[in-house]
Amino acid sequence: MAVQSTYRVQVRPGFDLDATADLADYLAALGVSHLYSAPLLTATPGSAHGYDVVDHRNVNPELGGEAGRQRLLRALRTAGLGLVVDIVPNHAGVAVPPANPAWWDVLRRGRDSSYADWFDIDWNRGRLLLPVLSDAPDALDDLKIVDGELRYHEHRFPIADGTGDGNAREVHDRQHYELISWRRGDAELTYRRFFAVSGLAGLRVEDPAVFAATHDLILRWAAAGEVDGIRVDHPDGLRDPAGYLARLRAAAPAAWLVVEKILEYGEELPDWPVDGTTGYDALAAINGLFVNPDAEGDFTALDTRLAGHFTSWEDLTHATKLAAATQLLAAELTRLAALAPDVPAEQARAALAELAAAFAVYRGYPPHGARHLAAARAEAGRRRPDLATTLDAVTRRLRDPEDELAQRFPQLTGAVMAKGVEDTAFYRWTRFVALNEVGGSPAHFGVPPAEFHRFATARQVRWPASMTTVSTHDTKRGEDVRARLAVLSELPGRWGEQVKSWMAYAPLPDPAFAHLLWQTAVGAWPIERDRLHAYVEKAAREAAASTSWADPDPVFERAMHALVDAMYDDPRLHDELTAFATEITPAGWSNSLGQKLVQLAMPGVPDTYQGTELWDNSLVDPDNRRPVDFAVRRELLARLDGGWRPSVDADGAAKLLVVSRTLRLRRAHPELFTGYRPVAAHGPAGRHAVAFDRGGAIAVATRLSLALARAGGWRDTVLSLPVHQVTDLFTGRVYSGGETSLADLLADYPVALLAPPTDTAEAAS
């Protein structure tokens, strides 16, 4: 079943397979072709996301098990829907050893375990280190033997055969593993992790036997026609992504296959046997389309004034990536340095860390990998000329594809980029946080329409089945929050004066973080107090500037939470914040509708993240996994189908109208979405329209609506439409074609979706 559009559901304990099955009729009515599910295999007990798989042989019993999956399949088939599943080849959950039979066996038998080759373990460095102890020097005194196992508080570990005599400490010292302080984990672990998460151990799926064992169930589903698409989590973490994807494609030749590959600005997806990415490249282009590029200088000046100094994005990210390489990922760095015994260990560590920090993309792939490595070598040499000889020696090794160092180094660069930029620099460089998004480049301020059209045209030619998205479970803030924040780029002076006033009235010791906090509040307001408290705690600790996860600063965090409380309790702050958010909300709604239509109508397979068919003010995970009120959405969709045409401010119903009518048209008439041609707007406000013809369906959206209003509206601006009649699916109005007034076309909504009249009735029903 061809994947035309997807709807992402975070299947999890509390919203299991049966609850998901109950959505089938609603999703069909919405217009999607496929349910796109979070991982379904058995995960760590209580996992809220499913990316910590512990048993690849079974459907997670906490989701309803195999019986629940069968009920879901029946519901989807009855509704005429297909299924896309998320798989996790890079790592497995090991935080609860008894839950993972393979890991438990490795702990018990060590190298003699039949699963010893499953996990990316450096056995040459001695026992397998597990960072579960407290930081107290006598932590092992709390170790006990219970029911033939070692117990440390709630943690359970196996005892190898013939090693159980004596007290707990003596037994522990005979095991294939060693329990160590959690603080030693980042520097000393002997197994590769997912980023710096010690509870996620790297898998060796480059081994055909490991691939077969960990993919057997998913591939049986695909062979049986029970899965139409596969989303591959984090391929950059694999030792040989290209080889892995070739094997996966051969095993599932008919599947729609997309990869969670984060492309940096201007980077191309390698020529892999896949249908495309999970859409972050599209998100960046769409997001930037509604940002005013002319405001960059104003926001740079504001950021400099607030912080008290100019912050270079390049220098900041180099510093945060270097810290990630040498601190959070020190164990992985040590392992790599050991692969260069001809170079003194500390020099090898320093050179590899500098190269990783200077790498401009997540990792290099042929044919451009050599170019990225050469650029990294030049930048590392500029910053550390004292390491020139070592850098040359290491770089020579990294150019050899058969060298183990060259094969493992890209696994480090991807993790360094993710931890250093996405999870640190994005929270420190707060010039304009609407751009601080996964797959985005905060240093590139906005995307002019011409640039977007070039991107979309190339996408139609090269990757027409790649996913598009504007929200995922990994985005730093929801699509409608970003849409409202984009409005600030249209009034930089007004925003600058307002935020300076707030920061003077209620100062925070870290002004850069305060700027992030105020932008977040304005973008998500009104937001429940506990949600904002939870967000700022995570954001501040991720920034690791004034506090951190490892060493929280209670003084700073009290001040930070006091500022959040003041937003609700201080009359002046509360009233001013409410007034400002209210002022920019209509323009934010315009941006929201515009970016949603562009995403759904542009080349690619559009995904709708759960709940975002209405206004959604979600922030970063876990906030964006909150329960969704589907009853409200069903009721509003029924009203729309009854002929109701809502105003833009009617509880997000206008967004639901855009989503449902666009998806239905794509499903009913895919032939109208087989090309891409920009449609020009002519007249004094032409730059405020973005329009394109997909081969019969024409999407029209408004950008920079505040500036448009200040300039007097559309006035005599017109759009050149086909000579035949077209109908706007959002209003039902018919246009005769030719030069059409944008003031008339966009009188009710800031967006329009035009199609031949014979196609619109079916698509609207």
UniProtKB/TrEMBL annotation:
One Pfam assignment: Alpha-amylase
Gene3D superfamilies, A to Z: Glycosidases, Maltooligosyl trehalose synthase, domain 2, Maltooligosyl trehalose synthase, domain 3, Maltooligosyl trehalose synthase, domain 4
GO molecular function: (1,4)-alpha-D-glucan 1-alpha-D-glucosylmutase activity
EC number(s) recorded for this UniProt protein: 5.4.99.15
CDD domains per the UniProt record, alphabetical: AmyAc_MTSase
Enzyme class: isomerase
Chain ranges of the Glycosyl hydrolase family 13 catalytic domain: 4-395
Entry annotated with the keyword Isomerase: yes
Keyword Isomerase: yes
Alphabetical UniProt keywords: Isomerase
InterPro entries according to UniProt: GH, GH13_cat_dom, Maltooligo_trehalose_synth_4, Trehalose_TreY
Name the UniProt record assigns to this protein: Malto-oligosyltrehalose synthase
The organism of origin for this protein: Micromonospora vulcania
